[in-house]
Design a protein that fits this description.
The protein is an alpha/beta fold. Helices cover 52% and strands 12% of the residues. Bound molecules: beta-D-galactopyranose. The site of beta-D-galactopyranose (GAL) has 13 residues, from loops.
């Protein structure tokens, strides 16, 4: 290259760099004021992940004052009620946590209170970076995309401590039938709670794993499309099995948070717990346990090869007080950088495929395993975490499970579930 050409190139590079830096800094300087972020991440790995995001965002946008409005309560039990009344009262936060799928679409999008975010996806090239299936879960029929996913969580995970199982002489059950007929009696005889279960929403969480284990992914998915008849013998068998599984759990369920239930496994009071992989965040961040030693995992019984998914996303409500800051936050949240900050603490997988999932320093053995399953398994959606059946169905189903937990009446539970399904989804 001639000297002139070289210097011309150098100059061009310098100009481009200056322009780039200038546009970045003008961009960041333009954004200021309060930014209220609404979620239900108040403790442990979840809060650590959110706080790490907020810290990095603060470096990028120093003039924005983040207000972290998290409302305690696993799976958003309290946050969602607060959010509803704020939205109805015309007082939306700037951005809020919402699950991909039915929870986003059938409530907020259907009510016309979310802004489409296609412009961010186009500008950031995210239609290439996010899995198609995930994008379709957060889009309407016209192709408007309504939120930014920060992760992929797995619901159907069974957690245990290998040394404890060895001591009690049991192995991880491959099916619920094995759990009920072999594992559970052996553990009861050893005076150990076979399965630690917590408050109401964690029971629905367990129910969906039992349903998937009994039905398999195709028939489970059919529960939400009408292809699987809620009145069928196979659904009877889901409730029967669920009843038998509950009988192998602690009786003080309703007083326990998900963390309490997970803790019982670590303490050696219980052998197993079925919980989403935010439990990995809890074990890794709160308890500093070593994966594979301090805690271990397996697909919940009968669900090997199936991934019961959910995704935490953030959206932009119409009328967000600081729309500009919210857009900056969403742009950041969806970036590979943000996803690599958040997910190793949260226990979830990055949703953005440009993230550094192969980096085993960041993503340990648990994540590697989950990622293999995410990319090879049959994917189905979680009821307890908004991917399918949100709103009226979920509320009604929660009541059915509450009654079932006390009376164990399979026929009654199934009959009311059939009625509920027809009411919400029937012609
Ligand atoms: C889920 C949420 C997870 C985690 C969990 C426990 O609904 O998607 O991110 O927060 O609840 O609270």
């Amino acid at each position: 290259m001639s000297n002139r050409k070289f210097y011309a190139l150098l100059l061009l590079t310098a100009v481009l760099l200056t322009l780039g830096i200038a546009s970045l800094s003008v961009h960041a300087q333009d954004v200021s004021g309060d930014l209220e972020i609404f979620s239900w991440w108040v403790g442990g790995g979840e809060a650590a992940g959110l706080e790490a995001l907020i810290a990095r965002f603060g470096e990028l946008y120093p003039d924005v004052n983040v207000i972290n409005s998290a409302v305690a309560g696993g799976s958003g039990v309290n946050a969602q009620a607060v959010l509803s009344s704020r939205m109805q009262g015309g007082d939306p936060p700037d951005t809020f946590q919402v699950h991909a799928g039915s929870e986003l679409n059938d409530t907020w999008v259907a009510a016309g209170v979310m802004e489409p975010l296609n412009f961010i996806y186009e500008e950031e090239g995210w239609t290439e970076s996010y899995p198609e299936g995930l994008i379709s879960l957060i889009s309407d029929a016209e192709g408007n995309i309504y939120s930014v996913p920060v992760n992929i969580h797995r619901s159907n995970v069974m957690w245990y401590v290998p040394a404890n199982l060895e001591q009690w002489g049991v192995t991880v059950p491959a099916t619920w039938e094995e759990f009920v007929t072999t594992t559970c009696p052996a553990l009861l005889a050893a005076d150990v709670t076979p399965l630690a279960v917590g408050q109401a929403w964690t029971q629905m969480h367990l129910w969906e794993s039992v349903a998937l284990g009994v039905l398999g992914p195709e028939a489970y998915a059919g529960l939400w499309t009408g292809d699987t008849d809620w009145a069928s013998a196979e659904v009877t068998s889901v409730f029967e099995t669920y009843g038998q599984v509950l009988a192998c759990s602690n009786s003080d369920r309703d007083g326990l948070s998900w963390q309490d239930a997970s803790q019982r496994v670590i303490n050696g009071e219980a052998a197993f717990n079925v919980m989403g992989d935010w439990a990995a965040g809890y074990f890794l961040v709160d308890l500093a346990l070593e994966p594979g030693v301090g805690f271990a995992w397996s697909a919940s019984p009968g669900t090997e090869g199936a991934f019961l998914m959910l995704s935490d996303t953030f959206g932009l409500p119409v009328g967000a007080p600081n729309r500009e800051a919210a857009v900056a936050w969403l742009r950041f949240l969806g970036s590979a950088e943000a996803q690599d900050i958040f997910n190793p603490l949260k226990g979830s997988l990055p949703a953005n495929t440009d993230a550094d999932i192969e980096n085993t320093e960041l993503y340990n053995a648990y994540f590697q395993d989950a990622y293999t399953d995410w990319t090879t398994n049959a994917i189905v959606g979680s009821l307890a975490h908004g991917a399918v059946g949100y709103g009226e169905f979920k509320d009604g189903f929660s009541n059915i499970l509450a009654v079932f937990a006390t009376d164990g009446d399979v026929a009654a539970a199934q009959a009311i579930a059939v009625e509920l399904w027809n009411e919400v989804y029937g012609e």
